[in-house]
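Q: How do we represent a protein-ligand complex in a form that can be generated token by token?
A: Start from the inputs.
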Amino acid sequence: MDKFSFDDVGVKVGLEIHQQLHTNKKLFCDCPPIESDEYTKKFQRRLRAVKSELGEYDPAALFEKSKSKSIVYFGNSKSSCLVEEDEEPPHNLDEDAKKLALVIASSLKSNIFSEIYPMRKTVIDGSNTTGFQRTMLISQGGFIDVEGEKIGVQSICLEEDAAKLLGDKGSVREYSLDRLGVPLVEIALEPVEGSPTKIKKIALSLGKLLRSTKKVTRGIGSIRQDVNVSVKNGGAVVEVKGVQQLDQLEKIIEFEAKRQHGLV
Ligand SMILES: [Zn+2]
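Then emit the structure tokens for the protein with zinc ion bound:
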């Protein structure tokens, strides 16, 4: 094949969108989500791998531990309390964030579960003081209409945002606590075939729908996309995490598809 064509290569893309919710407080405490680089407190932790519920160590956690990093957290008492420091149990789930997640799930015709349970997702890089992220599965299924085509929704979760990375030098990694615990909605879409332009249109439509609730945070960093790219007969699915701009999204899909196609 001389000329690269997205149709011939059969590019499949799965999008996962993380959108911060604009509520008055964090998901599991009363701290307001105020971003500031003025810090009034600082403490240090060391990461330690613990066995999972299945009695096994997470290989990624062991790998991180082998680097024996000290994690230093910076906080401001206006935007973080003992919950973010993991010195106090989480408070009740914020009702506004829950309602908003339900509104988003309804507008995507997603099937909402009758009961919601917080689960723990292991976090190995120190971006959460607890060593895990609290996440709740809200609904499954549904779709978004993009230019007459129904793009399927896999699942919608309500979860807490991670601490913000300030620096990573030598054996010390630094985070700030102001973003930790801010409510996020995670929407995972069914993988779709098509060009990067089509995928961008889908991301744009979803962004528009989220903004129509008038209750989502806007601006850089408030919406992040994880992109899974694979090509036909290519085997592996490659995930690119934390894409913040839609123009980047288009380019990443293109580069990744071309790279994988070159490997086939
Ligand atoms: Zn707090």
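Residues 26, 29, 31, 80-81, 83-84 surround zinc ion (CB under 6 Å). The longest helix spans residues 246-263.
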